[in-house]
């Protein structure tokens, strides 16, 4: 009665004239929108007040959404980068760690040094060096083509006072313990190609195993 007589606030004129409810993501500098939202935006309170960049846009029909620029650049670097796992010919096999100008070593190599970000400019052959077992384990459930059980170890090489670690298979797990000395031994096949694999040629892996000294 007081509202109708003009002694209070303006009388209630229905839902259409109510200000829309604010949400935390609604831009506070914009005026309130009167009335209910449009049919397309019903249930998405405040979406008309969001900046254009914040609105979710759907890709056009038949168009695949592309990857972000940073991700595309990283994928291009990985595709063009020569992986330093092995650099082997028929006469010579090498086990290369990569070094940056600041002396940091890493295995395998990277486009940029993980420690300082500089480009890695030289390699150090670890094939003629010995390493120390940091930890080791045995896997009894292996993928097709991988020996069972499979003995794996993380070993650490000391190159002029700089430590570099590598993960690889052990030739045997008998009498192997943490702190033991091992040496790299070249193996022509690290797995059996063609076992459960549709393309055997892609599974011909050679490399190094670690043998107790």
UniProtKB/TrEMBL annotation:
It comes from Fischerella thermalis JSC-11. Residues 1-12, 38-47 have a biased composition (Basic and acidic residues). Pfam families: OB_ChsH2_C. Residues 1-95, 194-213 are annotated as: Disordered. InterPro entries: ChsH2_C, NA-bd_OB-fold, Thioester_dehydratase-like. It comes from the Bacteria. Residues 13-28, 54-85 have a biased composition (Basic residues). This is ChsH2 C-terminal OB-fold domain-containing protein. Residues 125-185 form the ChsH2 C-terminal OB-fold domain.
């Amino acid at each position: 009665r007081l509202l109708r007589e003009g002694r209070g606030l303006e009388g209630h004129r229905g839902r259409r004239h109510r200000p829309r409810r604010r949400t935390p993501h609604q831009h506070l500098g914009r005026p309130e929108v009167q009335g209910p939202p449009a049919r397309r935006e019903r249930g998405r309170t405040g979406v008309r007040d969001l900046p254009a960049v914040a609105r979710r846009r759907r890709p056009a029909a038949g168009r695949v959404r592309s990857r972000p620029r940073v991700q595309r650049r990283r994928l291009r670097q990985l595709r063009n980068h020569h992986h330093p796992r092995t650099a082997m010919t028929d006469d010579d096999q090498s086990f290369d760690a990569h070094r940056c100008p600041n002396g940091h070593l890493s295995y395998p190599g990277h486009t940029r040094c993980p420690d300082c970000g500089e480009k890695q400019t030289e390699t150090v052959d670890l094939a003629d060096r010995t390493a120390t077992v940091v930890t080791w384990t045995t896997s009894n459930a292996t993928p097709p083509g991988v020996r069972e059980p499979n003995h794996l170890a993380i070993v650490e090489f000391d190159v002029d006072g700089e430590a570099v670690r590598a993960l690889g298979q052990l030739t045997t797990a008998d009498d192997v313990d943490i702190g033991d000395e091992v040496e790299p031994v070249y193996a022509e096949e690290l797995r059996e190609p063609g076992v459960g694999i549709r393309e055997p040629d892609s599974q011909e892996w050679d490399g190094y195993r670690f043998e107790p000294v």
